[in-house]
């Protein structure tokens, strides 16, 4: 398993509390980069710009990755473009909402 696959697997522990679907299957994770050997840079979005759980979700991503022994630095970049839509969800995520 590559480090990127491990990161994605670990991020599945971070749930959107309103939808009760993890951030990976929701399609909120846009990109994962490794600028240094022990650092990860995550570009992500939320389902809506006014999401009241903004801090909870982004903090969950940060803490989840900081727990990994391969990672010592985490940066989360929250973006609004491209905007999130249900089309970004994985097949597993779509099943969870009945599609």
How would you describe this protein?
By secondary structure, the protein is α+β, with helices and mostly antiparallel strands. The protein has one domain (3-84): Fe-S cluster assembly (FSCA) (GMP Synthetase, Chain A, domain 3, 2-Layer Sandwich). Helices cover 28% and strands 21% of the residues. It contains three helices and five strands. The protein has helices at 3-11, 54-66, 91-96; strands spanning 15-16, 21-22, 29-33, 39-44, 73-78. The strands form two sheets. A three-stranded mixed beta sheet has the order 3-4-5, covered by helices on one side. Strands 1-2 form a two-stranded antiparallel ribbon. The protein is globular, with a radius of gyration of 13 Å. The termini are far apart. The model has no long low-confidence stretch (mean pLDDT 93). It comes from Cytobacillus praedii. Residues 4-77 form the MIP18 family-like domain. This is Metal-sulfur cluster assembly factor. InterPro entries: Fe-S_Maturation_MIP18 (IPR052339), FSCA_dom_sf (IPR034904), MIP18-like (IPR002744).
Provide the fold topology.
Blueprint: H1 3-11, E1 15-16, E2 21-22, E3 29-33, E4 39-44, H2 54-66, E5 73-78, H3 91-96
Parallel strand pairs: 4-5
Antiparallel strand pairs: 1-2, 3-4
- Tell me about the largest β-sheet: 3 strands, mixed
Strand order of the largest sheet: 3-4-5
Tally of helical segments: 3
Q: Can you tell me the CATH architecture?
A: 2-Layer Sandwich
Q: Would you tell me the overall average pLDDT? A: 93
